[in-house]
Amino acid sequence: MPHALPFFLYIVVLAPVLLGHQLGDGWTFLTPLGLFGGLGALDMIIGRGKTGGYTDAHSPAHRLAPMLWLPFQLALIVWLLFMVSRHELTILEIIGMTLSVGAIGGAVGIVFAHELTHRMSWLERRLADALMVSVTYHHFCVEHVHGHHRTVGTPKDPATARFNESFYRFFPRATIGGLISAWHLEVKRMRRRGRGPFTWRNWVLSGLIAQAAMYAVAGLIFGWPAIFVLAGVGLAAVFQLEVINYLEHYGLERRRRADGRLEPMGPHHSWDDDHRLSSWFLVNLTHHADHHMRPGEPYQRLEQVEGAGKLPFGYATSFLFVLVPPVWFRMMNPRVEALKAAHSI
Fold first, then answer.
1. Is residue 144 very low, low, confident or very high in pLDDT (cuts 50, 70, 90)?
2. What would the pLDDT profile of 298-314 be if each residue is shown by its tens digit?
3. Spatial separation of the C-alpha atoms in residues 319 and 326, rounded to whole Å
């Protein structure tokens, strides 16, 4: 139970949002600055260490940590739309608060949705659906589990960043390609069940309808500006997700064996990080190699594995380097080559 408590640290992200709103003006940008500046600095101070590998952990607290976030995320979004509808914010403050709520939606909401969509429980998977609908990216629940985990490290995977591919080339390929892949996966699933694609049982289609309904309701209740704010929240959240996708497998490939089949996922097909604060905050998403080798394992059981690629900095700092391609390539390309050489890729 005690080792479950750090995974509730996400509650502190509400503080900069509320403080930024209270102070107003440029202070409304406090949350993204804190997430990617403050968290990165604290990663270096707190350092590296064990945050997972608790094989006997069956505490309800571990399960509840990601499940409890949904009401906070929905409340933040509704609160923001309400303030916009009441004309309580300047244009600068609307932009700042939109980025702040979107930043939390990506750094916390999508990370928790990722954890929940891998669970077998109907309730946990529906919570993941709701979280992803709220940031206009529901198809991720289909594509990530049934697409990315099967094709990662290959040209077929839109979420695997290629060697020397900048994030700005990767982003449109990942977002558009992910939706197309998810649609094809659901069409195939419907065909196997003897149904056409245009049915509510198609999770991609039902997700798109739910998102359209969300925008319609937001526009009717809070006015047409709410539609653009809601889209901004989603864009900020998805931008963060795809930066993380980019850095988790950058430049790594899976070989085809003599029989034409792909080699199984190994430690050297993912980039890991063992900074404790990032790992607690992101519920061990940072133990990414183990997650791909054991995708059904709850986050508290994931651990650093021998042979995985190691990021030189925590996720928050790496996020910033990704945004400057020449710096990212200079930092990571030698590491990609070294990891490939070590495993004869």
1. very high
2. 988 898 888 888 999 99
3. 14
